[in-house]
Design goal:
The protein is of the alpha+beta class. It has 2 domains: about 100 residues, Zincin-like (2-Layer Sandwich); about 40 residues, no CATH class. Helix content is about 40%, strand content about 15%. The protein contains 4 helices and 6 strands, in the order αβββααββαβ. β2 and β3 form a beta hairpin. α1 packs parallel to α2 and α2 packs across α3. The protein is elongated, with a radius of gyration of 19 Å. Keywords: Cytoplasm, Metal-binding, Zinc. Belongs to the SprT family.
């Protein structure tokens, strides 16, 4: 992966929001929480992820740079909520009622499961496969699994195996 350097003022804005949300959660839940490690190594179209056991938040540097304030306002509380839920309740559904509670009641942020950022700049090559009823786009990762014989994909509508049509994108 090509390394993308997040400008220092943007990193500082991320940490400022993260610390504000931790204080908010600590006050509301009447306990202190450690500050998670933040890295800028998330790849692909995913904006961020929470590594529960490592107490780490991974952020997509490209989507952060492209969407700055809306990214910070949405993704930071989203991923921090995953860590707090794990801390408070253990292993539960990723976007279940506990997570929604932290998002809506503690952080006062809409509990959106996915972001709506444009992913044009982070999309990888796709491959067109077909079945009997339609065409399907598979990612390069899925395509490589098919080529190596590690996976085969089946259409959910007609139940037929997908076959490569042509390269796309």
């Amino acid at each position: 992966m090509k390394f993308v350097k997040v400008p220092l003022p943007l990193q500082q804005a991320v940490m400022r929001t993260l610390r504000q949300k931790i204080v908010q959660a600590s006050d509301f839940l009447e306990q202190t929480f450690p500050e998670p490690t933040v890295t800028y190594q998330q790849r692909g179209t995913t904006a961020g992820s929470a590594r529960l056991q490592d107490w780490e938040i991974r952020l997509n540097p490209i989507l952060l740079i492209e969407n700055q304030q809306s990214f910070i306002d949405e993704v930071i509380p989203h991923e921090l909520a995953h860590l707090l839920v794990y801390h408070q309740f253990g292993k539960v559904a990723p976007h279940g009622r506990e997570w929604r509670y932290i998002m809506e009641t503690v952080f006062k942020v809409p509990a959106n499961r996915t972001h709506q950022f444009s992913v044009q700049s982070v999309c990888s090559k796709t491959f067109i496969y077909s079945c009997h009823c339609q065409q399907h786009e598979l990612t390069i990762r899925q395509h490589n699994k098919v080529i190596r014989g590690k996976s085969c994909y089946v259409c959910r509508q007609c139940g037929k195996r997908l076959t490569l049509l042509e390269d796309h994108k």
